[in-house]
Amino acid sequence: MRLLTTGTIRTRSSQPFGHQHRPLLHTVVRRYSNTASVIGNPDPSERYHRTVKLPDGRTLTWAEAGSPTGFPCFMLHGFPGSRIEARGFEDIGRRHNPNRRPLDWPADLRYLARHLDLKRYSVLGGSGGGPHACTYILACDYAIPPDELSSVDLLCSAAPWEAGTRDVLWSARLGSMASTYCPSLTARLLDLLLGMSKRFMASDTGKKLIDGIAVKGAATASKEIPEAEKHPEAVAALREQLLRIFLEPFAQGSRGFVQEAYILTHPYGFHLEDVQFERKVKIWHGTKDTNSPIRMVRYMKERLPHCELYELEGETHFTIRKYLEEVVVKLVEKR
Q1: 290 with 156, same domain?
Q2: Residue 243: pLDDT above 70?
Q3: Does residue 106 sit in the same domain as residue 228?
Q4: What CA–CA distance (Å, rounded) separates 57 from 35?
Q5: What is the residue range of 311's domain?
Q6: How far apart are CA 277 and CA 135, in angstroms?
Q7: What is the pTM (predicted TM-score) of this model?
Q8: What average pLDDT score do residues 263-279 get?
Q9: Element (H or E) spanning 121, and its range?
Q10: Element of type H or E holding 155
């Protein structure tokens, strides 16, 4: 029996998240066999056990891994080896799309809306989700029926860096540079720090710190903590909730975080002036927001057609949460 494995590895562009339009890897593993048919199927996945008849009567058995729409690459497996080795390429092939842009988001969101059988809906873009919400409006011009999107609002939205970065936090500038020039190293360092943070938060000192954050967060939102929530069991439950909020963005590692930092601090791939929507787009933003300075948001407001900016005096990126209910209620009222 002659064994061959064939696979295809897609190389990355010179830019960390360059202008490529297919997922990272599509692997096909092939095996030549002298038998007329394959007996048994040790792997339950159909993708790892596919066959085709060759002109001379032999059966070619092959496996496929990675993204079905990725650039194809044949991988020849080693000796001894088989097509099942393709399993090792599955995660590589489906890992974060290196060329993802805000403009890619509307198709994903609309697919979810259709899956849920939603005929009409609103979109609220919060913080880094603001630019993605703008792309959804833009998509109405060519891919989404206008009557499907009821309303769009932005809450403490990120703003384009083309507005100038003189009042941007140094940490944000550092993050942009790191995601641009050394994304892989940055992701590895963040993964290391994340592991250290998990161990710290499991300690008594870490638990006390998280409990303090919860109390401070309630005070920031102008909420009085009920007596029932002060019991040890309730405090522990709240602590677990905060930990999930903190850790979930890194559930698949830090690479997605680094990629998003790159996306939000580089040109979005569209002009704000091109975002046309027949209804008003409302932006709710705190004047003391240091994560997304109000000056940059005003720049965005001037360029977004049919846009209203509500400047919330003295509010920051985090204290603005007290207005969340008001924002959501007014957003869905426009349906």
Answers
A1: yes
A2: yes
A3: no
A4: 9
A5: 102-160+267-333
A6: 11
A7: 0.68
A8: 88
A9: strand 121-126
A10: strand 149-155
Percent of the chain whose pLDDT exceeds 90: 27
215: in domain: yes
Q: How many domains does the chain have?
A: 3
Distance CA 168, CA 291 (A): 7
Among the listed residues 187, 234, 235, 195, the one whose alpha carbon sits nearest the alpha carbon of residue 211: 235
Concatenated DSSP letters of 50-74: EEEE-TTS-EEEEEEEE-TTSPEEE
Binning pLDDT at 50, 70 and 90, where does residue 146 land?
A: confident
Within-domain flag for 165: no
Regarding whether 245 and 207 lie in a shared domain, the answer is yes
Which DSSP helix (H) or strand (E) runs through 131?
helix 130-139
Give φ, ψ of 59 to 5 degrees.
-105, 130
Task: Tell which of 262, 289, 316 closes a domain.
Answer: 262
Q: Which two tokens stand for residue 60?
A: 């070619």
Specify if 246 maps to a domain. yes
**Dihedrals phi, psi of 254, to nearest 5 degrees:** -95, -5
Structure tokens at 278: 């027949």
Please give the biggest Cα pair distance in the chain. 79
Q: Are 207 and 215 in contact (CB under 8 A)?
A: no
| 66 or 87, higher pLDDT | 66
Cα 205 to chain centroid distance, Å, stands at: 32
In tens, the pLDDT along 24-68 reads 333 333 333 333 333 334 444 677 777 878 788 887 777 777 766
The answer to whether 137 touches 277, Cβ cutoff 8 Å, is yes
Residues 71 and 22: their CA atoms lie apart, in Å, by 7
Out of 262, 287, 304, pick the residue that ends a domain.
262
Q: CA of 232: how far to CAs of 91, 140, 208, in Å?
A: 40, 50, 12
- Residues 87 and 119 both lie in one domain: no
